[in-house]
Amino acid sequence: MTVKKNSTIAFIGGGNMARSLIGGLIADGFDAGNIWVADPNEEQRDALRQRFAVHAVTVNQKAIEQAEVVILAVKPQVLKEVAPDLAQAAQRRKPLVISVAAGIRTASLETWLGGDLPIVRTMPNTPALVGSGATVLYANERVSPPQRSLAESIMRAVGLALWLDDEARMDAVTALSGSGPAYFFLVMEAMESAGRELGLPPETARLLTLQTAFGAAKMALESSEDSATLRARVTSPGGTTERAIQVLQEGKIKELFGKALAAAQERSVELAEILGK
Fold it and tell me: How far is CA 55 from CA 39, 45, 50, 160, in A?
């Protein structure tokens, strides 16, 4: 389905995620003249105008009065305060609403915005800031096929975009990809520290860790094999890698990750209840 790249898009909030999406959209062929951003911070607005030549305003209603798409890019804990202020204009325009606010369910958004709106809830992760994000999307029943394609195109501007049909699974997504970058940072932190303890200069340990992580991820992305097969392929019997893997498996690394993600999912459910009240 052809995506309409001259759609008028309004961002509520001009922080890091909004800036990343705006940059990705413009690089993907969307017209900067059709992008509006509302943010109370004057310095932030000036930076957005200078960098992207978009419209940047103070008042939310000004940004969305002509919008076909409204992207809610404010912090989850303030969205409940911001959304009712948008309700009148949203009910008049009936735009596609895309939320990048973690933990806010579509039912809460519908209530705060007055109901009867097409809403897409997304869960991006922080690598979106460098154009390498992983985003999962969920659409309510009022989202049309063209709007679904448009929402996907917008989120693909900063990386991978995948759909879920069951919103309840968003908590698992939060545990896996939403929080996931921190898990890899922790593994890299541990490897870098171990390299230093083995006698490597700090910068050498750092660069070797980062390039190894990047190379492993690139190999996995470009391969049709699963991670277990790739691991087995680079683990020679009786070699150094096998010895290291044995130590990690004896430490029950898989079980530990299972517990960690279950804990993150549980906390995601708790936060959704708190933020949605």
Answer: 11, 9, 10, 27
H-assigned helices in the chain: 16-27, 42-52, 60-64, 76-93, 106-113, 145-156, 170-173, 180-197, 202-222, 227-233, 240-250, 253-275
Give CA–CA dist 276/129, Å, rounded: 26
Task: Report the pLDDT value the prediction gives residue 1, as an integer from 0 to 100.
Answer: 60
pLDDT at 164: 97
Strands lying side by side in the sheet with 159-163: 55-57, 35-38, 9-12, 69-72, 96-99, 119-123, 133-139, 159-163
Domains and CATH numbers, the chain: 9-173 (3.40.50.720), 178-272 (1.10.3730.10)
Position 2 scores a pLDDT of 60
Q: Which residue positions in the chain have pLDDT lower than 70?
A: 1-3
Cβ atoms of residues 167 and 157 within 8 Å: no
Q: How many CB atoms lie within 10 A of CB 31?
A: 14
What is the b/e burial string over 194-216, where b = at least 16 CB atoms within 10 angstroms of the residue's CB? ebeeeebeeeebbeebeeeeeee
The model carries a pTM of: 0.92
Q: What distance, in Å, lies between the first and last C-alpha atoms of the chain? A: 37
Q: What is d(CA 266, CA 262) in angstroms, rounded to the nearest whole number?
A: 6
